[in-house]
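Project standup — Tuesday

K.O.: blocked on the structure for the chain from last sprint. Re-posting the sequence here as requested.
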Amino acid sequence: MTMRLTTFLLAAALPGAVLAEGARLELDCTFVTACDAAGQCAPGHGPARFVVEPEAIDDDGTGLYTLWVDDGEGHTATGASRTGPFAWAPEEDVRMQLALTGETSALWIRQTLGTGGETPAGAEIDLMTCEVTF
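H.V.: unblocked you, prediction finished:
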């Protein structure tokens, strides 16, 4: 077992109050596959970086997080566990979700609701490989 995985498993077993103090999840990812709402997929390209920091979580990791994408501003996100999925809304008609799907993989869903704006409803789904650190 790798040191990172061992650290992750150990951290996941700790109570939320201990993890909430300064524990951060950092993902340095590369897009592997990009799919649209119609299910059309193509090879992905480019990097993405996510930083997820717990703010108010329970022992299972459920609660509020601050999430940054690349060098953008932090957004309040809700998390179902310490590994996601994390859900946030960076804009009024945009919803996003991020979930770790394995030791070195993640899924990023970007959904446009299309309510009242000029942009039609749609979604993009990206499968990524990631280096995960704490």
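K.O.: great, moving the ticket to review. The first strand starts at residue 25 and ends at 36. Residues 1-22 have pLDDT under 50 and may be disordered.
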